[in-house]
Design brief:
By secondary structure, the chain is mainly beta. It has five helices and 60 strands. Strand 4 and strand 5 form a beta hairpin. The radius of gyration is 28 Å and the shape is elongated.
Length: 533
């Protein structure tokens, strides 16, 4: 063979190899080049399955866009074996802890139906198992059925340093250990916005309707509905636990929540983080540290938020908004209106136990409270250990056995300033119109607080000053609400149509409306019915 023929042969062989590679690459997807300007197009279940071929940090510049709705039902079913593929385990998540997904997946407003995973002993289960530095947007999952061990979610098992925007999931998610969420199991140093979940979530620890465990991350403009069951601890309607300087805002949950310890209608546990402009309305059932909005809050700030959840618990620290407000935690401009019942000790219409230098400010409760033993209050069950109640009130009826007060059941070495109560109170011992018992074993301060002697049925109280209904309603008597701030904090109910003639808190006037929905920007997702559209 002469040199010319050798050259032609090699040229033809190289061309064939190059063309074969291009054909093979294009066959993985419906089109595109994998760039931001021209993403690879995902049109079928097979195309979606091929996304897993681009894992690892070297593929963080890869882009995928879904161009049609995808149904995984047939793809995941093995007709010959008459069970789901992979020996009944179903879908293999895209990305694992040792080989993570870094790319950009754009849902294009389309859905993925019928995701099925059954690996009860395996971590990081979801459509995506482990994402890092990734972005997933405009995608919906319908009829999901996902079971994993820990870090389990419908969309993502573990989401680290990533962004999830405008996504949703419906169906059921079950985890057999920790960090289970309807959308994301473990959200680490990441952002979730304009997302929601509708369905059932079950697990043991850190269980949430949308997110199981939210660590050093933000969640905003999102919601959840359905049921959440935490067999052990830290279960919440939207998020199981919020910690490490996380921020959650403009979100809500309508989910019913059941669990054991640290259970809340919105979040089970909050530590060194913030919740702002959020609410919950689902029923909450638990054992101890149970709240309509949050089960336990430590070194955190909850602001401009409320709960309409009815709360039922068997043990201690039960509140209409927060069960246990501890460790320099702050509640400001919040309220609760659901009924609170069943707790033994430290039961309150707003907070069960306000403990260790914590604060309740510019807040109120209107729901009825029933405790089965001691330290039961319309606003706070136990105001404890250098804690503060200021510029707050309660109006619901209160029943207990010992240390029962319309505002606070017991005040132990704590402070109450510029607050009032009006509800009917009943109990056996240490019953008061404002407070049931003041323990002066340490410092205690009480400034210009009042209770209605007529509506409460009490002519005496531990602390506070008794006034008639006429003296407390507009136009109130000169010896009532002395030195209160009616410019920036309080407002007189001139017409008697907001708080039955009693003063109300100026900042919270709008939240009295039953139709109040604190979502400051719309949640939208194409191809999915949205109650706000």
């Amino acid at each position: 063979m002469n040199l010319r023929k050798i050259f032609i042969f090699r040229f033809m062989l190289l061309t064939a190899l190059l063309l074969g590679g291009l054909v093979s690459l294009s066959a993985q997807f419906a089109g595109g080049k994998g760039t931001e300007e021209d993403p690879w197009q995902i049109e079928t279940a097979e195309h979606l399955d091929n996304v897993r071929n681009y894992l690892g940090e070297e593929h963080r510049d890869k882009y995928f866009i879904q161009t049609a709705n995808i149904d995984l039902t047939d793809f995941l079913w093995d007709e010959n074996a008459e069970e789901y593929i992979n020996d009944g385990e179903g879908w293999v998540p895209i990305g694992l802890s040792e080989d993570r997904y870094y790319g950009n997946y754009i849902g294009g407003g389309h859905t993925i139906n019928g995701l099925f995973i059954n690996r009860p002993a395996t971590h990081h289960q979801g459509l995506f198992g482990y994402t890092e530095g990734a972005q997933i947007s405009n995608l919906g999952l319908t009829n999901t059925n996902v079971t994993g061990f820990s870090h389990t979610g419908g969309l993502v098992g573990s989401n680290e340093n990533s962004i999830i925007l405008n996504c949703f999931s419906t169906g059921s998610v079950t985890g057999n250990h920790t960090a289970t969420g309807g959308l994301v199991g473990h959200n680490i140093s990441s952002s979730i916005s304009k997302c929601h979940f509708e369905g059932n979530v079950k697990g043991d620890y850190h269980i949430g309707g949308l997110v199981g465990e939210n660590q050093a991350s933000t969640v905003s403009n999102s919601y959840s509905s359905g049921t959440v069951t935490a067999n052990e601890t830290r279960g919440g309607g939207l998020i199981g636990s919020i910690r490490d300087n996380s921020e959650v805002s403009n979100s809500f949950s309508t989910a019913n929540v059941n669990g054991n310890n640290r259970i809340g209608g919105f979040a089970g546990y909050v530590s060194e983080s913030s919740i702002d402009n959020c609410y919950s309305v689902g029923n909450v059932l638990g054992n101890r540290e149970v709240g309509g909005l949050v089960g336990t809050s430590g070194q955190s700030v909850i602001s401009n938020s409320h709960s309409k959840s009815n709360v039922t618990a068997d043990d201690v620290m039960v509140g209409g908004l927060v069960g246990y407000n501890s460790s320099e935690a702050v509640i400001i401009s919040c309220h609760s209106s659901g009924e609170v019942s069943g707790g033994t000790n430290n039961v309150g219409g707003l907070v069960g136990n306000n403990g260790w230098s914590s604060t309740v400010s510019k807040s109120y409760s209107t729901g009825d409270v029933i405790g089965t033993d001691q330290r039961v209050g319309g606003l706070v069950g136990n105001n404890n250990s250098s804690s503060i109640i200021n510029n707050s009130y309660s109006t619901g009826s209160v029943k207990g056995i010992d240390r029962v007060g319309v505002l606070a059941g017991q005040n132990y070495q704590s402070i109450i300033i510029h607050s009032f109560s009006t509800g009917l109170v009943s109990g056996n011992t240490n019953v008061g119109g404002l407070s049931g018992l003041i323990d002066t074993g340490g410092s205690f301060e009480e400034i210009n607080n009042y209770w209605d002697t007529q509506t409460s049925g009490q002519g005496s109280s531990a602390g506070g000053k008794g006034r008639t209904t006429a003296e407390m309603t507009y136009p109130h008597a000169e010896n009532t609400y002395v030195n209160w701030d009616f410019n920036d904090i309080w407002k007189a109910d001139v017409d008697g149509d907001i708080n039955n003639g009693y003063p109300y808190i100026k900042e919270d006037a709008v939240s009295v409306d039953d139709d109040y929905i604190p979502i400051t920007s719309s949640i939208s997702l194409s191809n999915y019915p949205n109650p706000f559209n």
